[in-house]
Amino acid sequence: MHQWVQLYKAAIEAGCQWIDVDIQGIAAFDQDFLNTVFARRGVLSAHFTDEQSVDATVRAMAAIPAAVYKCVLPEEFARCMRTVTALIDFWKSLNKKFIVHCSGENATSTRLWAAILGNAWTYIAAGTERTAAGQPTMEELRWYRLDQKTPETRLLGLFGYPLHQSRGWQLHNALLALFGYADRWLYLNFPDPDFSAAFAAWQPWLDGASITIPHKQTAVALCEERSPEVQITGVCNTILRREDHWAAFNTDFLALRELLLPFQSQLRRALVVGTGATARTAIGVLQQMGVSQIWVMGRSAAKRKALATHFHCSSLPLGAPLPAPVDILIHATPVGMVPYTEQMLPLTPYLHPQMVLVEVVHNPAETLLVQTARQQGVAAIITGIELFLHQARYQFQLFTNVCPSIQQMWQVWKQLQ
């Protein structure tokens, strides 16, 4: 330990601006050094493993002179933002500089939100690759525009799991900047398999949120108000704070209906591949547009039969022959999504030039299914990016009461590339 003390002191003498010492090793430093040097240039750190030790450790930290007090909590504390904010309030009450956040791949949101709540600084990676779990890069950070945030800034965000493939956080933050709302809202990702816990942790600061798999049905149950599209499908992809309750919307439904309207007269028979929330939306749109015959196809016999029963349509095993060629095929599964871009379900036999193909996967821009459909001569293809941008447009309007043009959506999207 003596060698480490000498190393820290040598670092100060060599001109280092800060030295970071864990509370477990601080006792090795003499009081004079703590009072004169560490109080001006020292970061006193504590890395917690559970909530039980937080209170006593933090109070012990407060008794030690330091320039900055750093508290790093486990990843699961992102579900327990009251602990994070309680620590921030504690250091503020003592008029101390602080850094409080959670560690782990799914805790980036705590680093960014705590920056607005008053962290002395935010750790970032200078390059394009993260150097610590959950630590944003310089490239990522520029999209958040933290320099434009204020104490009045509120949150928007995306709940789902996993979220590594999502580009929505970039799109919405760019749109907020485009329309002059960068100071009013920050859009974050909230990756968590437990929607109820994650939403409870963050909802005090939220004005609205996007919802993706696997939470599109779970979120509906927490909302007292439900749009007609949510009532039809039983799923939502957007929730919005009202004065005393939350409202659920399905902008996927609105977007798909808008994109299919030019083809409505030719749609009589449809194949929907998938049994999840997106498949429910697809079936709801097709039925509202008057499609007379719909087949549901999926790996799970129980799920596809349950979905077919609910919507009064037919079901088939994945890969089974169709009774007749379909006018539209909607691929409503995540197969082919980044990072599994070489995957594709056995759908080639159903493709033909006169049909409409809808691909819901938007990352990558063109999935293997879309590439195969082009090779098969399918001319009418609605890509996942088209669907994504149209639904995001409706979503942004719900959040801000501003409706971007689809041309503006494409312009912003191109900037992200």
Q: Would you kindly provide a written description of the structure presented here, covering whatever features stand out?
A:
This protein has 417 residues and is α/β, with parallel strands linked by helices. Helices cover 37% and strands 19% of the residues. Among the domains are: 1-141, TIM Barrel, CATH 3.20.20; 264-382, NAD(P)-binding Rossmann-like Domain (Rossmann fold, 3-Layer(aba) Sandwich), CATH 3.40.50.720. It has 15 helices and 16 strands. It has a 6-stranded mixed beta sheet with strand order 6-5-7-9-10-8, sandwiched between helices. Strands 13-12-11-14-15-16 form a 6-stranded parallel beta sheet, with helices on both faces. The protein has a 4-stranded parallel beta sheet with strand order 1-2-3-4. Helix 4 (81-93) links the parallel strand 3 and strand 4 (97-102). Helix 10 (251-260) packs across helix 11 (277-288), helix 10 crosses helix 14 and helix 14 crosses helix 15. The radius of gyration is 26 Å and the shape is elongated. The two termini are 49 Å apart.
Summarize the structure.
This protein has 417 residues and is α/β, with parallel strands linked by helices. The protein has helices at 2-13, 31-41, 54-62, 81-93, 108-117, 138-144, 168-178, 195-202, 228-233, 251-260, 277-288, 301-311, 368-375, 384-400, 406-416, and strands spanning 19-22, 42-47, 68-73, 97-102, 154-160, 185-191, 206-211, 225-226, 238-241, 246-249, 269-273, 293-298, 314-317, 328-331, 356-359, 380-382. The chain is 37% helix and 19% strand.
